[in-house]
Amino acid sequence: MKTMKNGDKDFNNETNNSTLYIIYGSRTGNSKAAATLAYEYANHLGIETELLDMKTFSFETLAWMRNILIAVSTHGEGDPPAMVENFYHFIHSDQSPNLKRTNFSVLALGDSSYKEFCKTGWDFRNRLLKLEAKEISPLVECDIDYKENAKKWVKEAVSAFEKILPETKKGEKKEFAFELNKRDMEQDNVFYARVLEKKELTSVNSEKKILHFSLSMENFGTSYHPGDTFGVFVSNPRLLVDKLLKTMRFDRAYSIHSTDSIKLLKQVLLDDYEITLVTPVVLRKYEQFTKNEELRLLLSDENKLNAFCENHDVLDMVTLFPSEISPENFLSCLRPLKPRHFSVASSTLVFPDELHLTVGIIEYNLQNRLHKGVCSVYLDEQVEVGDFIPVFHEANESFSLPEDDSVPVIMIAAGTGIAPFRAFLQERKHRQAKGKNWLIFGDRHLESDFLYGNEFNSYYDSGILTQMDLAFSRDQKMKKYVQHCILEKSETFFEWIDSMNAVVYLCGNKRTIGREVKEAIKFVIEKEGNLSSEKAEEFIQQMTIDKKLLSDLY
Prior knowledge:
Strand content: 15-25%
CATH topology of the largest domain: Rossmann fold
CATH superfamily of the largest domain: Flavodoxin domain
Shape: globular
Number of domains: 4
CATH class of the largest domain: Alpha Beta
Helix content: 25-40%
């Protein structure tokens, strides 16, 4: 297979009219796997085709392409992945060419636990239409169980191009095998890290429970940096699985057959499927089998649907919307169980053989029972010092410290979003970075919820932290959040991002931080920069393009 890079091929009209260019932007490898399958299928049909990586191909050649397939993922709440950002901003800029002679189709991948989980793919589609390109096959969305929809898109989109492109080489007569051959990098890179320390960061009076873990990374063999994440492999709580089987009146010893194995239903629910949360996609699939009228009404109200998905799980779904359904059909409604990711909370310059993680325990009462997150049960109740945790590293290029140590940084966090900034400051201190550091942190109560408070106070007292502003929402009558700190220090904040060219980092739960903070930043830019709303929006967009406004929301 040939993957094109900058200048790999001379572009001419005849070549471009007859070649199918398949462009992918992938963070975890799913988009690349789908694009590769499309490349192989097009070759099978005798179509001249080239495979391009958004991260490396020359954007200027887009103007000459007449036939395009795009497979692209979305990171978190609607953001393009780091390796996609440059091409994304190029195609949305004034430099993008008119594409009225171009045909295209888009595969949009994402994670439906986020509301706008396929937004990047839709953004590409809508921009291509605005540039007058013609959509030759409809956009297809993929959740994390992406394989069937991806194969459907490949078949339909490539077949659509087969009708308009010449057969430039003899196609293969044998039947094509529609199989995605993504190498599972997570499983390949699993490392069993021994727990050196486990302690509570929040006090006994806190309404929340936050744990600090220190893991031994001796002999890990791969470098990792502040801003990166580590995934933790988990299984579902046995008690929850038992309750689900009982409610569904399923036989726990029922055999589930897959292409390469036979497993008991109980083991499948423990290891393979997501049951501690639901998404709109899961609910829609379930309704298609059950035809439950109450569920249909919920699905018709987007606000109620999103509110339901915020705190209900699969057991709630089958309890509130009961119906007869076979085990196989039931499993087809569920999402694959994925690892849980945590930000690196330490610098290897300070702790060379250790990895620190900050873990928020998710637990709340609903429907007359205690709900807990899948990783919360595992790490809180089953793991102790001396045990080994299966983890894997995932680099996060879009959330790293500036290479230039003189660049100032503003770190805005709520709750466990403080984790990467603890690592940032350890790193900056060790490197004797000359750039100023400003921390804006928020949680509920100062006494119980100032995570790593002694460390950050020490950084402030010693001058490592130039400025520190804290917002503890429940410590006064009027609730105060991190966005209020930004507004209170608007003049200083604007000076840092405008005159001092600071990089702004934003980290925390997408439901409690994100939109409000960005709105506060926009207001500051309007006020202190004396700019219109449109110009302030352009200012923020340029910060994003220049990698001066970076978010890691979960």
